[in-house]
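Q: I'm writing a short methods note and want an example of a predicted protein-small molecule complex. Could you take the sequence and the SMILES for fe (ii) ion and return the bound structure as tokens? Please keep the output block clean; save any remarks for afterwards.
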Amino acid sequence: MHKVLWLTDPHLVEPDNAASQAPAEAWQRFRRCLDDIRHDHADAELLVLSGDLVQLNNPGAYALLREALETLHMPYRLLVGNHDDRTALHEAFPHIPMVRGFLQGSDDIGETRLIYLDTQAAQGHYGELCPFRLDWLAAELEAASTRPAAIFLHHPPMAIGVPALDRLKLLESEGLRDLLQSRRAPTQFFCGHVHRNVSGRWCGHPFATLKSTNTQFAFDMQAERLRRCDEEPGYGVLLFDNGEVIVNYVDISTDH
Ligand SMILES: [Fe+2]
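A: Understood, no commentary inside the block.
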């Protein structure tokens, strides 16, 4: 069995960034998650952080994130989200793979291929996959052949029934749908961005999304505007074993 930790959307801020709109608790909550991991899951093989690592316009937070992650002494992979600055991120983490300017790569863990996909749009908070990135994914899946694949991406390609979030999903996901519909081997999506735990099936394959280590968005099937709620932060513990996938969710207390 292979244990992979999954965290998303910490929206970390630079200390003393007066212009930041982000909740001040971002670091405190993120560190609580790391403390929990240190205590209960130090045996994990890998940690994946699926985007929105920092709040918009806080590039100085990447160096602090690196310091924090390296206290775990565990390999990690990072995805880029709509709040991230790809260039600043790569400067702070030059060892994270980049493919022709996009932050994507893959690892084989046991028989499963983990694929990290860059869905950041040139502008805007929704996601996009240009033909280059889609072709790259097709090649990765082809190389995985009949082995299981886990695709990590920041923007979910599916609508989850929350209009304020759904308009910010991966747009023009038809190419991805076509690619995945023809894939017969076990494949699962792991998405960030929505700050909620949601699971389901899309184009024949299961998916999971994950709550933020910071603040959550409300389950509101009516509102046009994003609304935060006071649900607790958390992270995920993924278990991969011979083609089976288990997604465990851990909540973290925000009591002081
Ligand atoms: Fe986010």
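A: Remarks, as requested: The helical segments are 26-40, 61-70, 86-92, 131-144, 163-166, 174-181. The chain has one domain: 2-251.
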